[in-house]
Amino acid sequence: MASITFSGATGNFSLLPTAAVSENSNNIEGGFNPLKKNLNNTRKKHNGRSLVSTNVASPPLPAIVHPPPKEESGDGYDRSHVAWTSVRQERWEGELLVQGEIPLWLKGTYLRNGPGLWHVGDYNFRHLFDGYAMLAKLHFHDGRLTAGHRQIESEAYTAAMKNQKICFREFSEVPKPANFLSYIGELANLFSGISLTDNANTGVVKLGDGRVVCLTETQKGSIVIDPTTLDTLGKFEYSDTLGGLIHSAHPIVTDTEFLTLLPDLIKPGYLAVRMEPGTNERKVIGRVDCSRGPAPGWVHSFPVTEHYIIVPEMPLRYCAGNLLKAEPTPLYKFEWHPDSKAFMHVMCKASGNVVTSVEVPLYITFHFINAYEETDEDGRVTAIIADCCEHNADTTILDKLKIQNLRLYTGKDVLPDAQVGRFKIPLDGSPYGKLEAALDPNEHGRGMDMCSINPAYLGKKYRYAYACGAQRPCNFPNTLTKIDLVEKKAKNWYDEGAVPSEPFFVARPGATEEDDGVVISMISEKNGDGYALLLDGSTFEEIARAKFPYGLPYGLHGCWVPSKES
Predict the structure, then answer these.
(1) Pick from 380, 395, 461, 496: most CB atoms within 10 A?
(2) Whole-prediction pTM value?
(3) CA gap 25, 3 in Å, rounded
């Protein structure tokens, strides 16, 4: 008989009650049973596979409940979808009932970071990117699955909980000054970086020395966490004197190095820096000066090849003036400067020299997928190929990510089109590069974002990418898609009404095929439920799922922390 324990906090601060459930009974003793409908028949067919029940247990943990904000009469919000609803409590952990079979070789923890709380008191945040960070985990061991989530205890989050108001500048939110003098003081704090958020709600990476760090666009928003307990351990303090306030939210991290870009808002350009495992010191590799425009382009992510760092310069550029404003502008911290053109720069990793800078068609991307070097028959590098999730140079994608717009979905097809944008950057001295779709965007529903690859192919020629696509009509990517860049085809997974998060690929140990592994995602369902999902990396068919005790809000990016024994 499997025992089941789930949390169900009922007060502002309480211990979680427990529940005991029989495999063959729906009787509950002392608590809520979110798996009731799955317990009558623990062995049945699901996608052609036998369902296997594992033990489910949750230790009692203190939980701070997040009461939902009061409903605003007539605001038209549809808060029924858990993807866009604040998480119900600060933390939870327990073992899940697995339907299907988890491969025994899968040993480790998948961590996913993202916004989890979009309100303070009765005040609702404006944008998806404003939410206070929530870290979720899926720990796999011997075919069993333990899950959990916890708020990251940033200074921004703890201050907001204590004062019941926003205390730091978030993506679109600004603290409300009490008077004019406090407003002047807040501006001074902005220039020094004091008032910028440390809400590390974007990504999470495992450094080569084993430390796990949550990140966002601000440098101060680098926070070390414990991947087992999800405890916040403290700030990741850089020990160098490079300064600056912002960096790329997506560094390139391997077992041997950490690479990132530091935008220079004073003298428009970018510093490329490297940090070795075991240190907190970033060292400059080289600098790229912007080709055009009043400020550097937003550099949320960037790609690398074996020998080069690719520095993108988008016409969506940082705007110091917008940072100073008390209310958000249509493009938030950015401005669209199509007249400034768009560029791709290529820097040598070894020397720091810029080997070429080419003008390319206008583009907007949050996420680069991968890049590699194209060579001639003599092995000389002739071009760089860089792939990204490209939004057809349409700036409205930022506005579509406002929480109100996500909650107000009426069934119309309002998600802007996107493609796998493939840049070809010649190294023959030509001043122009190319940008075209790597495959027909209709293969993935003209939706494309939140990508991952087999990390063994980072910076190398590759065939497969995993991302979120679209089943239209929709207002947000709602499928998981496997892209075959050789056959120019896509396989798509779809669950009606569900919002999947980033599909994360984990390779099978010893695999020789690029797609030999599993794809992990967390799914938010419209009815308020949610589950962890495993797909076969090759066939892209479901092999296992495990229902959460309650649905979790949409998350952004993750990383894999292998077990020490694996």
Answers:
(1) 395
(2) 0.87
(3) 11
Report the DSSP pairing between strands 45-46 and 381-390.
unpaired
Give tens-digit pLDDT for 92-144.
999 999 999 999 999 999 999 999 999 999 999 999 999 999 999 999 999 99
Taking the C-alpha atoms of residue 77 and residue 546, their distance in angstroms, rounded to an integer, is 29
C-beta separation of 383 from 427 below 8 A:
yes
- Residue 15 domain-assigned (yes or no): no
146 belongs to a structural domain: yes
Q: Is residue 30 part of a domain?
A: no
A 10 A CB-CB count for 163 gives 12
Structural domains in the chain (count): 1
- For residue 480, the cross-strand partners are 468, 493
Q: Tell me the three-class secondary structure of 320-332, residue by residue.
A: HHHHHCCCCCCCC
Q: Is residue 66 part of a domain?
A: no
Distance CA 227, CA 214 (A): 11
Q: Which two tokens stand for residue 41?
A: 């028949």
| Annotated binding-site residue? 557 | yes
**Measured CA distances, 154 to 134, 221, 244, 563 (Å):** 11, 8, 20, 27
Q: Say if residue 300 carries a ligand binding annotation.
A: yes
CA distance 225 to 232: 5
Do the strands 282-289 and 269-275 form a parallel or antiparallel pair, or are they unpaired? antiparallel
Q: What is the pLDDT of residues 227-283, one digit of tens each?
A: 999 999 999 999 999 988 999 999 999 999 999 999 999 999 999 999 999 999 999
Buried b (16+ CB within 10 A) or exposed e, 120-153: beeebbbbbbbbbbbbbbbbbbebbbbbbbbbbb
Say whether 119 counts as a known binding-site residue.
no
Residue range of the domain that includes 468:
82-562
| Residue 250 labelled as part of a binding site | yes
Distance CA 496, CA 287 (A): 47
Cβ 208 vs Cβ 255: under 8 Å = yes
Rg over alpha carbons for the chain, rounded to the nearest Å, is 23
